Structures are given as structure tokens and as C-alpha cells.
Amino acid sequence: MLGFHLDYYLCCVIAVSGLLFIATSNRNSSAAVIPYCLGIILMLTAAILFFSTDNRIINDYQGGLDANEQTGLFALSTLTALIIRKLFSVGKKIIRTNSN
Questions:
Q1: CA–CA gap between residue 13 and residue 43 (Å, rounded)
Q2: Three-state secondary structure along the chain?
Q3: In the chain, what is the straight-line distance between the N-terminal and C-terminal CA atoms, in Å?
Q4: Domain coordinates of the chain in residue numbers?
Q5: Distance (Å, rounded) from C-alpha 88 to C-alpha 97?
Q6: Range 30-40 burial, b when 16+ CB lie within 10 A, else e
Q7: Which of 78, 91, 65 is nearest to 14 (CA)?
Q8: How far apart are CA 82 and CA 16, in angstroms?
Q9: What CA–CA distance (Å, rounded) separates 84 from 87?
Q10: Angle at the Cα of 6 from the Cα atoms of 51 and 14, rounded to 5 degrees
């Protein structure tokens, strides 16, 4: 894909977005199956995309991520996924209020 660090970051954003779809869905709703399925599909897609595009089983001294880089990239990708989710929910709320 684009580079090991950027691939890890993007796939973590996709996976955390899927987890947020599952966590924020309304469990009492009859349409709650759709966010669950979308979340699971996003998480599986992120894992498959990351591991199927290149050889990802490499040591940190051979070009892989060491623990500090991995922690930083995961925290940044989680923050990015949270911001994206919040922007979508605010946009949806604005659309709902303007349509009434």
C-alpha cells in the first residue's frame, strides 16, 4: 500500500471506526443490526487489508514498528476515528434540524 506506518495508521482508523459503529448503535432499535454488521465488516476489512497487502511480520529492527511507534500511531488513529465519528454525528444532527 503506502508505507508500513501509514498502512498501520489507516487500518487502525478503519478498525476503530467499526468498533465505534458497534458501541454507539442503539441496541433497542429494530434497525440495530445494520450498525453491528457494518462495524464487524469494517473491523474485518481493516485486518484483511493490513495483512494481505504486504509482508507485515517483520521485526522492528528490520523496518517494522517498535512499541513506542505503535502506541503513538494507535492513539493518533483512535483520536482520528473519534473525531470523524463526532463530525458525522454533528452533520447528521444539523441535517435533521434543517429538514424539519
A1: 10
A2: CCCHHHHHHHHHHHHHHHHHHHHHCCCCCCCCHHHHHHHHHHHHHHHHHHHHCCCCCCCHHHCCCCHHHHHHHHHHHHHHHHHHHHHHHHHHHHHHHHHC
A3: 44
A4: 4-99
A5: 14
A6: eeeeebeeebe
A7: 78
A8: 8
A9: 5
A10: 65
Greatest CA separation for the chain: 58
Rounded to two decimals, the pTM is: 0.83
Tens-level pLDDT at each residue, the chain (100 residues): 568 889 899 999 999 999 998 888 877 777 778 888 999 999 999 999 988 887 777 776 776 777 888 899 999 999 999 999 999 889 888 988 888 6
Q: Cell numbers 487489508 correspond to what residue?
A: 49
Q: Please give the single-letter amino acid code of residue 89.
A: S
Q: How far apart are CA 98 and CA 95, in angstroms?
A: 5
CA–CA dist 38, 41 (Å, integer): 5
